[in-house]
Design brief:
single chain, 11 helices
Length: about 375
Amino acid sequence: MRDKPPVNGNGHAFNEGANGSGSELTTVFPNVNGNQTYSNEGERQEPTSRYIARPNFGLIDFTLLDTLGTGTFGRVYLTKFKHTENYYAMKVLKKLEVVRLKQVEHINSEKLILSQVHHPFIDDRNLYMLLEYVIGGELFSHLRKAGRFTTDMTRFYAAEIVLAIEYLHSKDIIYRDLKPENLLLDCRGHVKITDFGFAKRIEDRTWTLCGTPEYLAPEIIQSKGHGKPVDWWALGILIFEMLAGYPPFFDDNPFGIYEKILAGKIQFPTHFDPNAKDLIKRLLTSDRTKRLGNLRGGSEDVRKHKWFRGVDWQGLYERRVQAPIVPPYQHPGDTSNFEKYPEPSDEENNVSSPGILPGVDPYRHLFLNF
């Protein structure tokens, strides 16, 4: 292993000026379900309207608490909104690193895709995205703890992800980074997809090489141009990894992984049932024109596969099906389901580009949509 429908959730939109005053836009709280919301405890709540106007907010209105995750560009923090005591996840990205690693387009694309359900804002050093806090932690952590999932557990999570992929593809969005680390469990154990940094709205194909090596489809590696079929390939990899505890193609070197993906030889553990093998083979078809999910029947072909027989798709969509893992938690701000990370030092927080004066933002023009 590597070191609403299910993509829904309540988001918050506001834009903060470089001085932190938060004076540019009025905040709106979108109800993305259209007819219902859920509290931190998972209780269903009736909304008063689809969009509710709120005063402007800035960083001063939030308390940063524990680190939930770290990455190349920054961190995700648990944060508490001081006025309501509600908890959120705040993604903080260092603009210097985003620019240095040539990820400006990906970050702007992520913001664009999440803009109606999540909220990005900005200051002279960092980019921020305020997200729903999903209390159950990463599916990766639960998988690592279990070693591998049972067939029934895997089928539950895979089916919810099918619904998520269907939804994104209906909006002409490809996700491109499906893996256990990017799947969170909510308070009732249902899947939420996170990290849309590689997601992109497309009408046909795109040619950017991006994603996690073990999950890359052959057409991405070969720079042939890729589209929605890459998400169905990744689903096949994910189902294999949940059932086996490891991905089907792995190597110490990324190029070794690519060679194995292109060779296309899958060695199934003996405990895999025939229907699981058949589904995975059909999803991991190198020729995307013959890949399950990309045929004439579309996602319906995936739903109707024998391995998914008995799945209550409507019940899953409405979150009426009991999840196999219900994450334990003591209070709405409980972080016990997440890994522990050392908090950043003051020196790390204050690092800036050499030769750039405090309060001066040379990258503002690159993030005008924030």
